[in-house]
Amino acid sequence: MADLGSFGVSKAIFDEEGNLLRRGRKSRTEFGLLFTSYWKKEFYKNMFFENRLSLYSDYINKFGNIDVDWQLNVDLVVNQYFKANVGIHLIYDDDIKAKEEIAGEQVIVGPKIQLKQALGIGVTYAF
After folding, report:
1. In 3-state terms, what secondary structure has residue 8?
2. How far is CA 104 from CA 6, 59, 100, 110, 126, in A?
3. Does the first or last residue of the chain, that is N or C, have fewer Cβ atoms within 10 Å of its Cβ?
4. Alpha carbon distance 76, 44 (integer Å)
5. What's the pLDDT tens digit per position in 52-70?
C-alpha cells in the first residue's frame, strides 16, 4: 500500500524498466495548527450527549484547508444491566483522494466526506 501512495503518503519511485528505486513512505509528518473541542452533557436522566471536534490546518502544504474530525455520541443507560450507544463519525481530509472506477479504470476524483454511523447495545453484569 505504501508503494502505491495510498492514504496520502509519498509513493514509490520506479525507473523506466519498472525497477524499484525508492520504496514508498509508511508515515507522513505535518506541521500545523490543531483546534480540539470536547463537550459532554447529561441532557436527560441517564442520557448523555458527547461531542468531539478536531480541526487541523497544515502550515506548510495548503494552509487554510481544514481537515475535520467530528464525533457525536449519545449514550443511554437503560438500567443497571443494559446500555446503548448511538454515534456518528464524520471525517474530511483534503490530502486523502478518493478513487472511482470509470469505464473499467481507477480514476482519482478528489477528497470526499467519510461518514460512519454506529449503534451499540451492551449487557453489563458484575460477579
Report:
1. helix
2. 20, 38, 9, 18, 55
3. C
4. 10
5. 999 999 888 888 889 999 9
